[in-house]
Amino acid sequence: MGKLQDKIVIITGGAAGIGSGIAKAMVKEGAIVVIVDLNEDTGKNMEKELQAISPKSMFKKANLMDRDNLETIIYTVVEKYGRIDVLVNNAHASKQKTISETTQEDLDLSFGTGFYPTFYLMQAALPYLKESKGHVINFASGAGLNGHETQAAYAAAKEAIRGLSRVAANEWGRFGINVNLISPIANSPGVEAWAKAQPKYYEEVKSRIPMGYFGDIENDIGRVAVFLASEDSKYITGQTIMVDGGSIMLR
Ligand SMILES: NC(=O)c1ccc[n+]([C@@H]2O[C@H](COP(=O)([O-])OP(=O)(O)OC[C@H]3O[C@@H](n4cnc5c(N)ncnc54)[C@H](O)[C@@H]3O)[C@@H](O)[C@H]2O)c1
Q1: Residue 162 CA to chain centroid, in angstroms?
Q2: Is residue 104 part of a domain?
Q3: In ligand 1, which atom is closest to the CA atom of 18?
Q4: pLDDT, tens digit, 9 for 90 and up, residues 12-62
Q5: pLDDT attached to residue 194
Q6: Is 232 among the domain residues?
């Protein structure tokens, strides 16, 4: 028996990067994982990889920017599996710009892929999470905690997600649901693109990681998500767990 045996887990942005690392760590603990992603190619490949371990796991293609898709994701999962135990709101896309450069379009991208899907998926999943006394895992960022320059739209959406998560932790604790955040640092396609766009900032971030490396999406981040999705973390709620090699809180 795995720590997440037969638990039904939804992971947004689960086709690549940290979301895929979490999916891989969770199926190894017995979970049935639904990865939701925009990218059909990486989604289908990841579906095959997950099904080799957890045959009932699946990929659902959806653009989280389209609000109509959000309730549909929840209902599709409930119709197929009859329950939801864990919701992982991992997907987030953004442009790196200063406040002066940031446009309405940039804000819409960051809030439309990060904050709004987190909010509406949590809202639609609540009745099912109440039944399962489930777990929500949201995503924060050191960029939001530190307010790093050029991250105006991203940092604002990330801190909105942290505020929402604390409210949910207060409102939903009485239902036996815990709500926590991971603030990660890990190698992912998103980080590779950012390293190319801002090599100086990338090197600066790397030099500030006491553990000395960018985390592994499955072994460093995925294993913590397994803990937060399991009964072992039941008495932790409303917390931002820094899974970043010590880089934000120590430096
Ligand atoms: N990687 C890091 O070091 C780091 C640092 C701080 C915070 N984070 C946060 O961790 C989470 C995962 O980061 P990552 O680096 O793995 O991201 P990533 O960009 O590498 O992967 C994101 C995934 O989300 C999917 N996605 C993007 N827009 C979508 C949309 N509109 N609809 C559906 N799917 C969509 C992408 O296709 C991709 O598979 C994010 O919330 C990110 O902000 C990551």
Answers
A1: 12
A2: yes
A3: 16
A4: 999 999 999 999 999 999 999 999 999 999 999 999 999 999 999 999 999
A5: 85
A6: yes
